[in-house]
């Protein structure tokens, strides 16, 4: 089937936060949004418990462009600044040595090392720069927290990631100010962004080919529909972007740049219990006998539901690919059984 639907001034590919934000600045008659999925929101997906299976946080409220789109009543402040890298700002229970770690001593040591690392060659990876810490449990747990923050392996991250002058107030790409969860999930943000453009969104449109010409572009979908436009804005991630055929082809330098972008892994496993049996802190860090770490988000604190969310980034996340739900639950439950007695099996 081949169907040409006429010309539109602007086509936006992708109805995630980027695409919706662009649409918010345009007149409704000037654009359409093509979305591959049967829903909008991209990597934001809120479940029935108002917890987020995808993106969940507003990373700092100061000078953050998202702040203008949200009401303070929609947010739950968890920490005054980045709680993963600045854990002195949030009460985290550390159980990595089968006991509690005094976080002030731990964090003082971390800050000292970060300052020393700032003198290292910026092309060195974080894993290489910290290789001498292989037996230091305190510091290895911090390296894991870096992976939680960025979703990538410290083997791929350059040490320049730690060499920012403002790391004591903001740090590593976030904004200064409170880091917040959404009371009713990040769908709140999507609802705010899509208010004026929901009638311009066409779902289930998988783009397979883009043809540029002298007066604009043609966007071809897998179902044989062709959309024409004067201007085209592509907001999809690098993975799906590589699956699109461009005519004429993208320039070699763009293809090479795309090939160097590494996609991380960030698995979230939410376990619901009848009642909490764990510590009354926003986050808990555990380590199993294989020296693998898990950071747990305690939603009893932030949302008053007895749910623990295990965060498994980078290599820990990739290890779960292809495993059944039962195997994944068993692997993260092993962490809890090391530190708590008579842990019940989750009801969901």
Major beta sheet, strand line-up:
7-2-1-10-9-8-11
Number of β-strand runs: 15
Instruction: Compute the number of structural domains.
Output: 2
Beta content: 15-25%
CATH architecture heading of the largest domain: Alpha-Beta Complex
Q: Can you count the helices?
A: 10
What is the overall pLDDT average? 85
What fold name stands as the CATH topology of the largest domain? Polyamine Oxidase, Chain A, domain 2
What is the top-level CATH class of the largest domain? Alpha Beta
How much helical structure, as a percent, in the residues?
10-25%
Determine the oligomeric state from the structure.
single chain
Give a quick rundown of the structure.
This protein is α/β, with parallel strands linked by helices and 348 residues long. The protein contains 10 helices and 15 strands. It is 24% helix and 24% strand.
Describe this entry's structure for a reader:
The chain is globular and about 65 Å long. It is an alpha/beta fold and 348 residues long. The strands form three sheets. Strands 7-2-1-10-9-8-11 form a seven-stranded mixed β-sheet. A five-stranded mixed β-sheet has the order 5-13-14-15-12. The chain contains ten helices and 15 strands. The two termini are 44 Å apart. Helix 1 runs parallel beside helix 5. It folds into two domains: 115 residues, FAD/NAD(P)-binding domain (3-Layer(bba) Sandwich); 178 residues, Polyamine Oxidase, Chain A, domain 2.
